Amino acid sequence: MTILLYNSLTRKKEEFKPISKDKVGIYSCGPTVYDNPHLGNMLPYIIWDVLKRYLLSQKYQVEHVMNITDVGHLTSDADAGQDKLVKASQKTGESAWDLAKKYSAVFFENMNELNILPSIKYLRATDTIREQIEFAQVLDKKGYLYRISDGMYFDTSKAKNYGQLGNLKNVDQRAGSRVDVNPDKKHPSDFAVWKFSPADEKRDMEWESPWGKGFPGWHLECSVMSRMTLGDTFDIHTGGLDHLTVHHPNEMAQSQAVTGKRQANYWLHNAFMRVDSGKMSKSLGTGITLQDIKAKGFSPAAFRLLVLQNHYRKTLNFTWESLEAAQRGLVNIIKEIAFFDKPALGCPDLEADFYLQMADDINSAKGLAVLQQTIESENPTHAKLCAVLKMDEVLGLGLKELRERALNLPPGAQELLEQRKLVRQAKDWTQSDKLRDKLSELGVEIRDTELGQNAVQVKL
């Protein structure tokens, strides 16, 4: 099957042709672990998980690598301001090392709750300092670096095709937008490869280097980690739209400067998530977390469904109403498939249509439409359940587990069902309705049929 992916490098959909016939290498830019990740932080990992699941469904072996930024990510894209870990450390009184450990654990917990496949190789920036210094030394020897007062900087004027990724027709165009002009730099687009430690403060995280004590620039770790694990050139590099005009062009430039090769063949970027049409941001107080939605009774699976109802290159506007609608939709799916017969055979035509929709730039919204069409089809229930579970191996909603949980009724429910069965046989409809209400309080919904009453737990 032909797989089409929108390549930010060429700004068009392209047929995906992996370097190896049956193996795909993916590098995803990971989190900066200085605070609780908000929903917008977690959105990309759901998308790239579906990408990986789809490739696995097409019989590819997938090697997936992700960095954990625990040093070097400054508060400004102009390589100014504080390291985010250091700033958080000063605010909380905890060491940068302890903060990184704590919020890494939160991130991994979120990944698990969102049903993201664990088959990812994670590398921490602080675990690859030696390799980052060695990489920077190669850049220095090749003449790409120059020294100014606060660090060693990459001269973007020497990089071939700098700005091709992100369509930066003028490499200085970013000045005055996300990147402020640093008068000490040769060009506004130049970026730090190694930052010097301030002379007047002791950092939790700093290392000796050939240029002086300091810490690596943010862009360096991804060049180093992707090369260490996937080689000079790999298949797919993923990240957020915010990476497209700063981080990824810089990463690509320094990688090509060292290897002389294209770093990745396909660059995929997800659009942002907004909240009530405004920016989702920790600093603005709109950084809603997975813990926040769980506290309000929403399932992480409902958030995953909300994300997949939208194409990944379109902005997703989060509202509590949209999350509530997604949760209702998920509950409705569970209620429909709960009493399907044991899965067998499948629905080949519908399954083929699902894979076809997903092959078009990972169109999860259309894939979900095919899943719903399958549920509503006239096929035998055993065939429908088989097909739905196959589709969910790609979508990752965890429908098999949710279905099993729905059929596992809470304590006391079975006794109420037996009582209701008896009063219905006696045609005591008033008492039957009262028992239905009691079951509803337990989170159990009843569907009366000619064969009797079916009960399902609808609390996710």
Please describe the topology of this protein:
Layout: E1 4-7, E2 12-15, E3 23-28, H1 39-57, E4 61-68, H2 84-92, H3 96-113, E5 121-124, H4 129-141, E6 145-148, E7 151-154, E8 191-196, E9 214-216, H5 218-230, E10 234-240, H6 247-259, E11 264-270, E12 273-275, E13 278-279, H7 290-295, H8 300-308, E14 316-318, H9 320-337, H10 348-359, H11 364-376, H12 381-395, H13 399-407, H14 413-425, H15 429-441, E15 444-449, E16 452-457
Parallel strand pairs: 3-4, 3-10, 4-5, 10-11, 12-14
Antiparallel strand pairs: 1-2, 6-7, 7-8, 8-9, 12-13, 15-16
Overview of this structure, please?
- By secondary structure, the chain is an alpha/beta fold.
- It has three domains: 4-270, 3-Layer(aba) Sandwich (Rossmann fold); 275-407, Four Helix Bundle (Hemerythrin (Met), subunit A), CATH 1.20.120; 413-457, no CATH class.
- Helix content is 42%, strand content 17%.
- The protein has 15 helices and 16 strands.
- The protein has helices spanning 39-57, 84-92, 96-113, 129-141, 218-230, 247-259, 290-295, 300-308, 320-337, 348-359, 364-376, 381-395, 399-407, 413-425, 429-441, and strands at 4-7, 12-15, 23-28, 61-68, 121-124, 145-148, 151-154, 191-196, 214-216, 234-240, 264-270, 273-275, 278-279, 316-318, 444-449, 452-457.
- Strands 5-4-3-10-11 form a five-stranded parallel sheet, sandwiched between helices. Strands 6-7-8-9 form a four-stranded antiparallel sheet.
- A hairpin with a 2-residue loop joins strand 15 and strand 16 (452-457).
- Helix 8 (300-308) crosses helix 9 (320-337) and helix 14 packs antiparallel against helix 15 (429-441).
- The longest helix has 19 residues, at 39-57.
- The protein is elongated and about 90 Å long.
- It starts with a strand and ends with a strand.
